[in-house]
């Protein structure tokens, strides 16, 4: 049975962590997987999470199964966070949420539900997170890549993107990054989001918004512009939400599949299918992360503590963006990397070839994906000169 099974190469993102850890050099930088890091390279448990966890553990009375929609209080708390507590979308019941194992689990549920709904294809702007395609196509929906990013100008080619979007019809789905675009860091402007919402209304395609970095671009309110506008203007939207980054719950695998329908009945019908898709794969969501998120969001004190910590993390990443741009200018790279400062979230794409990436890893111990994606959280005052000098050395910039 297994005679022809070949050993797979390491995962293009997760494999970098292992390679970095096994590198014996002390002068090395991990800019691989998207996790937040402190100045000394740690990914700490957020204080609000520790406190919520203690409360959850103290009150735990059973390890019996969770409900299909997830831990008690999780779904409603996430809906209030995403759309705003007073929003008509929440009050009318037009939105329904199911807890899922991380953003990845939510995307897998979306693929399954879309297949059942008769989706013909999912269009995704190029480049995207490498796991989008396998997760969304697992149930059998076709994926098409459409233009999004112009590498030469390090910015969105909105004209080309919009031209392709205008071709979509009622059986099509458009995947959008809800903010902090992975891997480019180049987000749609409010005006571009408005244009896309109009086009979606006109053409009838379904927007699927992958919202994995809520609070990491600017703040929780302005980062929610796309999901709120699309839900307000359109009858149907799907959202895949991750609590990995903004709650720092990476290994707890906590996220949500959110369906917005024209009314509560339709939203609940879609939700029932998401629960059923889960039932026929991993059965039920894990409780722990959902209980922690619910505990935080349903407590004013813990909520404030969490929001303050998130604001600080977001400011740190923005500061790291500034640091890299200033250092590049200082060592004579001019404004070659200045585009990094105007982008959002954890990632940017360095102007670098795959061969140069190989060289920067081998020669300088600077780990990034072969496409040149860097995690800005891994940059700090202690390592930024090494990073920029290594970049200059391998690219001859
Ligand atoms: C990333 O893109 O680095 C993160 O979303 C982690 C992952 O699962 O790839």
Can I get a quick summary?
With 397 residues, this protein is of the alpha/beta class. Helix content is 43%, strand content 14%. The model has no long low-confidence stretch (mean pLDDT 97).
Ligand set:
(2S)-2-hydroxybutanedioic acid
The helix/strand order is HEHHHEHEHEEEHEHEHHEEHHHEHEEH
Number of helices: 15
Q: Sheet with the most strands?
A: 7 strands, mixed
> How large, in whole angstroms, is the Cα Rg?
21 Å
DSSP helix fraction: 40-55%
Overall average residue pLDDT: 97
CATH topology (level 3) name of the largest domain: Aspartate Aminotransferase, domain 2
Oligomer: single chain
Strand content: 5-15%
Low-confidence blocks of residues: none
**Which term fits the overall shape?**
globular
Strand order of the largest sheet: 2-10-9-8-7-3-4
Say which CATH homologous superfamily of the largest domain is assigned: Type I PLP-dependent aspartate aminotransferase-like (Major domain)
Task: Provide an overview of this structure.
Helices cover 43% and strands 14% of the residues. The protein is of the alpha/beta class. The protein folds into 2 domains: 14-44 and 307-395, Aspartate Aminotransferase, domain 1 (Alpha-Beta Complex); 65-298, Type I PLP-dependent aspartate aminotransferase-like (Major domain) (Aspartate Aminotransferase, domain 2), CATH 3.40.640. The model has no long low-confidence stretch (mean pLDDT 97). The chain binds (2S)-2-hydroxybutanedioic acid (LMR).
What is the fold's blueprint, element by element?
Elements: H1 14-22, E1 29-30, H2 47-59, H3 74-83, H4 88-91, E2 95-100, H5 102-116, E3 121-126, H6 132-137, E4 142-147, E5 149-150, E6 155-156, H7 158-165, E7 172-177, H8 190-203, E8 206-211, H9 220-223, H10 225-233, E9 237-242, E10 255-260, H11 264-279, H12 288-297, H13 300-330, E11 347-349, H14 354-364, E12 366-367, E13 373-375, H15 384-395
Helix pairs in contact: 2-12, 2-13, 3-12, 5-11, 8-10, 13-15, 14-15
This protein binds (2S)-2-hydroxybutanedioic acid.
